[in-house]
Design brief:
single chain, 110 residues, mainly alpha, 3 helices, rod-shaped
């Protein structure tokens, strides 16, 4: 992709007697190639738009992952709460049974 008008630039050099035909053409060719190489490394609007699209897709993926993690955490919380209440019920049952046994023993041997 030429960013300078090479023919016009060559004509300016030759017509202004700054350089002869052949050196002017070599200079113009060298400049054109240098500019082309420099442009290859520049970011274009298309590059930026592609990056924006990729970032939007990543944000969407992150939101989906966050929702999945939140759902998993809620399910784990429900299971843990259920286990806690079960353990608490068993502990209360053990304590009440122990108290009943103690009361029975006191009544019998007391």
């Amino acid at each position: 992709m030429a960013i300078i008008d090479t023919l016009r630039f060559r004509n300016i050099l030759v017509d202004g007697e700054i350089a002869d035909e052949e050196p002017a053409q070599e200079l113009v060719t060298a400049l054109d190639e240098t500019f082309d190489e420099a442009l290859d490394g520049l970011t274009t609007k298309q590059d930026i738009n592609e990056l924006r699209s990729e970032m939007a897709a990543l944000r969407s993926d992150m939101r989906a992952m966050q929702a999945e993690i939140m759902q998993d955490a809620a399910e784990r919380e429900t299971r843990l709460t259920s286990r806690l209440y079960t353990a608490l019920g068993v502990a209360v049952g053990v304590v009440l049974t122990a108290l009943g046994v103690a009361a029975t023993l006191l009544a019998v041997f007391g």
